[in-house]
Amino acid sequence: MKKESVAVLVISLTSPLLVGVYIQDRLNEEFESELKTSEVLPKIFDEILRKYTIENLFFARGPGSFMSVKVTYIFLQTLTVTLNVPLFATDGFAFNNNSPIKAIGSLYFIKENGNITPRKIDTKKEKIMPFSLPKRLNREIFSKDTKPLYILPAV
Question: What is this structure's pTM?
Fold first, then answer.
C-alpha cells in the first residue's frame, strides 16, 4: 500500500512542541507535547514515517529556546539527508501573530520592522500569544535559509 505524501511543520521554540502533518498544504494531523524536544521529536517522527511519506520539512528556526532550536535543526537536517527531502524555515513570529517570544527572565524577543531584538516587557500589559499550527501551510513565508536564529540576550 502506497503511503500518502505530506509536508511536516515543526514549531519547537517553547513548550508545547507542535508538529503538523499537511496533505496538499492543509493541516491533516497535529502532535503536541510538553516533553523535551530531544525525547519526543524522534517518537513523533517515527509515528509520522509509519503512516506517511514526507516530501518537505518546514520549521520555525527561532528565536526561542536555544537547545530546542538546536536539537530540532540537527534532527531535521539529518532527515533531509536520510530521506532526501528539502528543508525550509521561517521565524517563529509567523505562528503567534507576531507576539513577543519568551527569551529569559522578563526578556522577550520582539520583531519590529523586520528586526528581532530582546526587550523587557510587562506581560500584564502586553498579551503573549501562544504558537499555533496554521490550518493551511503558506509556503511563501518559508525560505531555504534554515540556519537557526540564535539570538541570545546578554546575561
Answer: 0.95
